[in-house]
Design goal:
This protein is an alpha+beta fold. The protein has a single domain, classed as Jelly Rolls, CATH 2.60.120. The protein has two helices and eleven strands, in the order βαββββββββββα. Strand 6 and strand 7 form a beta hairpin. It is globular and about 45 Å long.
Length: about 160
């Protein structure tokens, strides 16, 4: 399965409400129900910045990164960041929403913990920053979570997660 990924190459990048609407429309048309605008120039850059749109029914499989940090800054909508232990048990839930809501609007993870995001609104849009370069072998998908290609297993997994919230 794929997601829409766009790279923007200009020296000055401006994110406008119209651009966010285009990103949401793109996410709605994708099988994984998400789209990302990469603000970095290529996968080898030392810093990766993205504006990501997730539709509420998007599944972002729990994963962790070795030797990377990442941060999220909410632009629109709300979501949960869910952290897990090595057995897949929830250890922390962080509700994220933009100001002025009474929720976390910025999050940073400085270590290798299992985590996932769960959209709570029709769309959530956030700015993600992480260290580069992107090396697929340094992102590990949780072995206790289903792959995106198995919709019944994903639905069952998400129902179990939601029941714990």
């Amino acid at each position: 399965m794929t997601q829409a990924t766009y790279f923007d190459k200009p020296d000055i990048i401006q994110i406008t409400p119209a651009l966010l609407e285009q990103l949401k429309q793109s996410a709605a048309c994708e099988p994984l129900r998400r789209a990302r605008l990469c603000l970095h120039r290529n996968l080898h850059d030392k810093v990766h910045e993205m504006v990501i749109a997730l539709q509420k029914d998007s599944y972002c499989r729990p994963h962790r990164h070795l030797e990377k940090s990442e941060s999220f800054h909410i632009i629109e909508g709300s979501m949960l960041v869910i952290l897990f232990d090595d057995q897949g048990l929830i250890t922390k839930k962080i509700k994220m929403a933009p100001l002025p809501e009474n929720a976390t609007f910025f999050y940073r993870l400085n270590c290798s913990l299992w985590h996932m995001v769960l959209p709570l609104t029709e769309f959530v849009i956030f700015h993600e920053t992480t260290t580069g370069p992107f090396i697929p072998d340094q992102q590990y998908r949780a072995p206790w979570s289903p792959d995106e290609s198995d919709p019944p297993a994903v639905a069952d997994f998400l129902n179990k997660i939601i029941a714990q919230l």
